[in-house]
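Justification of resources, computational component.

The compute hours requested in this renewal are based largely on the per-chain cost of generating structure records like the one below. Each record pairs the submitted sequence with a full structure-token output. That output is archived, and it is also reused by downstream analysis tasks.
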Amino acid sequence: MSIREDIIEVMKGKKYKPKLKEELAIYFNLGQKEFKDFFNILEGLEREGVVIRTKNEKYVLIDNDYLVVGNIEGNERGFGFLIPKIKERDDIFIPGENMNGAMHGDKVIVNITRRGQGDRREEGEVLKILERNKRAIVGTFEDNQSFGFVVPDDNRIGYDIFIPKSSTLNAKSKQKVVVEITKYPELRRSPEGKVIEILGYLSEKGTDILSVIRQFDLPEEFPDVVQTAAKSASQEVNVEEIKNRVDLRHLNTFTIDGFDAKDLDDAVSIEMKDNGNYYLGIHIADVSHYVRERSPLDKEALNRGNSVYLIDRVIPMLPKELSNGICSLNPGVDRLTLSVLMEIDKNGKVVDHEIVEGVINSKERLVYDSVSEFLEDNDSKVREELSNVSSDLKLMEELCDILYSKREKRGSIDFEFPETKIILDEKGIPLEIRKEDRRIANRLIEEFMLVCNETVAERFFWAELPFLYRIHEEPSPEKMSSFNKLIHNFGYSLRGQEIHPKELQRLTKDIKGTKEETLISTLMLRSLKKAKYSSEADEHFGLAAKYYSHFTAPIRRYPDLMIHRIIKYYLNGKLNKQIIDGLEVRLPEVADHTSMTERRAEEAEREVEDMKKAQYMVKYIGEEFEGIISSLTNFGLFVQLENTIEGLVHFTNMLDDYYNFDEEKYHIIGERTKKIYHLGDAVKIRVLNANPVSRNIDFELI
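The structure output for this chain reads:
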């Protein structure tokens, strides 16, 4: 047992009384020379939120019943929520007067001041700030002659930041700037900071997206050592390496991607076997051959965790020499792959499979839209263009339907959310925003990647080796109960005490084609937990899958790259005890870090999308549109337009009556007129305001 574990065990004991750090060191019979290391371990336990140092400098173990460790999620109105480290606990409300100088993103210890009852959540008070969120803050600078201040873009930071005149970097009013906090907030005093970078005026090309990149601390430029390594990579496959590979160049292999994709990390092939089974090949770029473990390239890829897609630009996980070059499965050139070759019967069961280190030569670079036009409409022009792969595509469509039916039977939930397509001009101004539905080509690739990811995960689960899984835990009964109450207002309900994915799937079928489909699907998604990476195998609730992993995108996701290495160790008989022990230590850290970078990327992508939507609606202020009520709150209702843009109708702009939100019946009702608004109601709106900085769009009802 380590000294860290010894400390925890001692503090758990019933006879333990709070001790000074020196008293603890003496208790463990340590000499003076060992004090420093011991104190560092204690400080580490304090930063983790395992122990707490009381006001009289004595250490005790944190009692998770009364003291909860987590991160603060702030609110522009001054209050916040604690997102607990312990996944079994719900979020805890922190009133503004109990924030005690904590800011959004800070890691804190919260003391429970009021227990939750029914739908009422627990309340607490920030007892101690363990770790400040060191991320720089992006905002709009305002000059006040003798000083300046910055209004943060992120409204979860409930303060303007005071900037002394000497620390403005000569920024001008209305410029976007990056600020470093120098003094954190105290009672009745705002935080203080210094400007460390001027991004420019919002009207200047690229400033808006650059401000989001800085806000989320996304690493743009690759370090010199990483660039040097990438540029030294050969752009042709080594002939000697091909001799060590399974040669798959005879297969009619091709890629299907978006028309503007440059990092092609998956290719597909299909044949019909003599016994009537399908022989599906999923060929994934062998990135691990070029990105060696613990090399500068690898360390930077892990730091980034994933690529981030921000409408008109990509912040890649790997330099373009790899992501768009030697690792990309471009047509007409030899490429190294990790290929999964699956024999699948007419019921969608994978009856046999093989994972090999291969070499392919992609015959075509296909685009989703063209493939969909061929399969959906049998377009004659497209049919001629795809003549070399037309029979393969028809076979793939057959198999796609079989795999989808199999997944549907077991209860996999399929959310039919339309994607938002944003078209920008050369200056970055949104020209068009429209809804894009998932078409057959997208669904086809999706099904193939799903069955491949499941096959790989199951293989390595039964091999009982360290591995990275993609898991989606069961939703909490409380959230499902609240969701059930909401859908009751639409005449739907969930059956049973324990909710199975099949029950939620039944609901998605019941609402298909109705005006409330998108709304209920959104509410359902919010009621489920977020999928994440884990070194421990667990089910994937949404897919109703016992085993699931991410294997198919190593150019843009680090977990995929990580498990490619494990698979190659396994295939080559190199998984010795030393490597296994190392993986068991490293994989939980990789899982936590890449789950975080994935959430960060999703937030940044959503921020850019919301900003561009607000920017687009500026030119429509005063104009009228039709939409449906997509959400209800205690301050107003949200309306979504046909093009997926959403705006708020605030109660203060509903002048015909005084409206209240009835949470029980889940509708908004006027006190005098008794006029009622429900989720899904069709309404006409006028655009009142659109603010790209705050990402807010305001409507009024007509």
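The domain at 137-201 is CATH 2.40.50.700 (OB fold (Dihydrolipoamide Acetyltransferase, E2P)). DSSP finds 17 helices and 33 strands in the chain.
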